[in-house]
Amino acid sequence: MTPSRVPASYQPLRQFKNRVATGLITAGGIAVLLAILAIGVFLFWETLPLLALDKTFAFDKLSPLVWGTLKAALAAMLFALPIALGAAMYSALFMSARLRSRIKPTLEMMEAMPGVVVGFIAGLVLAPWVERNLASTLVLLVWLPISAGLAGVLWHMASSHWHRRLPFSWAGLWLVPWLVGMVALAVWLTPLLEQLFLGGDLRRWLEQRWGMDYATRNALIVGIAMGFAVIPSIYSLAEDALADVPLSMMEGAQALGASRWQALWKVALPAAGPGIFSAVMIGMGRAVGETMIVLMASGNTALLSASPFEGMRSMASAIAIELPEASPGGFTYHHLILAALVLFLFTFLVNTLAEAVRLRMRRRYHKAGHY
Amino acid sequence: MLASLDIANAPQAPVTHFSSEHCALSIEQFNLAYAGKSALRNLTLSVPRHRVTAFIGPSGCGKSTLLRAINRLHDLNESVEHSGHIQLEGQDIYAAQMNVTELRRRVGMVFQTPNPFPMSIYENVAFGLRLQHRLPKRQRDDIIEWALTSAALWDEVKDRLHRSAWQLSGGQQQRLVIARTLAVQPDVLLLDEPASALDPISTLKIEELIRNLKSQLTLILVTHNMQQAARVSDYTAFLHNGELVEYGPTDQVFTNPHLQRTENYITGRMT
Amino acid sequence: MSRLFAAAPRHRLDKLWPWLCAASVALSLLMLSALLTLLLVRGLGHFWPATLEEITLRSGSVVAGQAIRETPLPQEAGVERLYFKGNRDVDGVSWHWVDIDDITSRTTPHDLIRLERAPWGSFIGRLAAVETDQQSLHGHEAWDYLNNALTLPANQRPPGQLLLVTAQGETLRQPLDSVSQALAPNAMSWWQKTHTWGTNVWQFLSEGPRAANTSGGVWPAIFGTVLMVILMSVIVTPFGVLAAIYLNEIAHQNRLTRLVRIGVRNLAGVPSIVYGVFGLGVFVYGIGGTLDSWFFSDTLPSPTFGTGGLLWASLTLALLTLPVVIVATEEGLARIPDAQREGAVALGATRLEMLTRIVLPMATPAMLTGVILAIARAAGEVAPLMLVGVAKLAPQMPVDGEFPYVHLERKFMHLGYHLFDTAFHGEDVQAAMPLVYATALLLVVIILVLNLTAIFLRHYFRRQRGSEC
Fold first, then answer.
1. Separation CA A36–CA B194 (nearest Å)
2. ipTM
3. Which structural domain, as residue segments, surrounds residue A34?
């Protein structure tokens, strides 16, 4: 019954192949890893010649760029943070599971939207519209949150019949038409208010009263456009962090009489804090390094101005515009590489921080036995 | 068969030893440390050919570690250090000239949870064969049929040899893994709690299979299930804290152990 | 109202905060759908043959053209409307702002036609006659003759001239072989318009740009993008997989491996422009310059490889997407249970056999996902390409019939950069806008499709595995 044993035929060859392949993979793997880690080394190396030159000069040229970068990133974060974190809280804790399984991938698809498209819309569509409707835009920034609250008040007043028809767990979806209506209302009403109080032209009033110039492409536009671009990454990571908070913790708080919002605020947020922090950090890293949106929506004026209605030039866009023209080895070349090094170090550090915090959180949960 | 059975001083249990013509595997003074932590201490043991030997002991006693050491599976992990000897048919398996892949072919291993590969039933059994030989299809088919028959699985799968192995039930998967190991015709088969993840009926089938297989090869069974060890094995070794406490014929270990510690464990007073 | 405020004051705002959060989701969805709708409507609407209007102004002058949009007049009440009237050769501009109050009559005559011509772009007006060597045709005959002639390629058409009349009454002569399309949109049925729309979309996808990127298509940009992405994937896949296998299967798992892993993960967050700088400094100036001085010294100082080109762009993007591929592959490898590896090894497989026969086949979906995500990222990246190799208008395609057929050193056109350049550096941005929208839409569609493919693949393979487990 037992078949006769066949002698193994090509043993030495198998061992040889294995040894060669392992060696090749090791060599190749190390080479690839070194190649990508070489980026930092290259940037350091190419900035060294700057040390021989006058340092203050390099600093003077860099400071408006650093300022512009921070201003753009700050504007974007101001716009993105409330929306992204609010959306994360709602979809992790209030949204119906079925809606969530649709909405989350949709919002994550936003992340794939190429910067050049967002920048084009911001620079050529949004910027002229905002210039014509500055008052409406500013009113919208205040009016939208108020109208959301208004929706809440109306909903709580409504009968339970409406509560069943329009459940809060689906509000993320059915609030869309409500917001569209509110936007339309604001855009229709604001010019009338502007007429009444500001003499019909907010921009002229700003200039006369406060001496503020208005550039078509400015920090406000960059903030909205780049905010739009970083919302999905912050949202996605923060939502993961919140959804990872063990349900038992929330339920424990609610069992003690806390409202769902209090449970979220007092229990879930602190527990997910590190994850949310790393989400914000990663969003910040993206905002600092984004090139095309700033390039197309900012006007590219290297100004040291804090006004939200004036443009700026960021390090990334300066590199994109000036580096192809700079002669290799010249001052501008090294100076722009210094800008790239600053970007590299900043984003690398921010990401490392985020990763470290995230890992620590994961380990903590591990210890608590929740995974 | 028992070459020597001398009474030693308490608390030492008598040493069971087999002469070289009956001994498939002998372990001498074997020590193993995992990341600096000692897992096996000074183990000496010989395993008889064509018999089922069971390793029992509380979890963490080192029985699985010992099994993996016999297959040199610890080679994949760098933080493991060992000393002493394990001899398979008189050859030191840790010797420099030992071919590890050949050793693993000769010492088959079946794991706690069934791990069929994500391919068809046929390909699963053919996997080891294809590594070793280039056989004509006829001959390969014969070996596969033989292996599946030996593992008592042939009748259940002969009509669906080319379906995915992951569609089988847990017990069938475990027998498939045994068939896959048998196909390369090992001398020793190591079974690491092979039935712990299975339902009672599948467990009985596996136990029956183990009893039938000892006519073909030497089996070593690690189990935490005392009844299983008693039902299946010819010899039983009780390990505790990485040391061998008592080793002898199963009947004797279970009915009349030499040491109080063994009796405590077997009667459930120590886990 | 009372029910809401009857609650303890502490709870009053607690009930409203969640609504702000819900509105955040709604606002994000609103912005996303607004952006997509805008791109869809403007991007696809441009190809629809628009109605041509003829308006008479209070001053008595007549304008024929396509109404584009309306805006309120600055500083005063009233609305003005922008018309595209073409005929740049007649009066120098092709746009006309009209105060709506000045319009005395507005008609859509069926005999208004729109021609696309090679040197001067669009003509909007009337066809008076077609003059050939033998005859002069008028009215319907002329129109039919023109349409017949347009079915032939330009160089095979019979010699002839079109006698055109603008709305103002000026006449001009247009050689027959300079016309690429003739439409009388007001006389077209819905079906004919749909057909023309399809033809226009096809032309946009299959032709090269004309008239300083304000008309024509984006075929060279599509081609350049696809070619670069293919080259990039060919480079990034083996190297990414190799690095992931080394990191996960072969390297000792210790503190250094963990650090390298975090480093690689973080490199995915480094701005793309930094990779562009690296590509420019190392690939273009470093390696390219050296190659030039070794092999192409006869053509120096004009560089061959020492300037941006297809190869360097692909390499730079490959470097940029390496972390994506490595991370995705590593995740796939880490998901494979050790039992599978041990099962293979316990049967006497060498490490190579275990990797190639068990581990790699199981990790293939993860690798595929990684590569598709890399492609999606690379297709949308523009910033690094500005440093290492795109061109506004590449004179030669990177692939042609000339040896060695694929010219890795050539500059190439890219959809994203084409969009940026046309929108921000074009001569007549207003005229190019519809094409910019169409290009943006195309880019978004390509990237969305790639991402959806990745999501679908991941989902599909997970479910398949789940059901079999």
1. 45
2. 0.86
3. 15-52
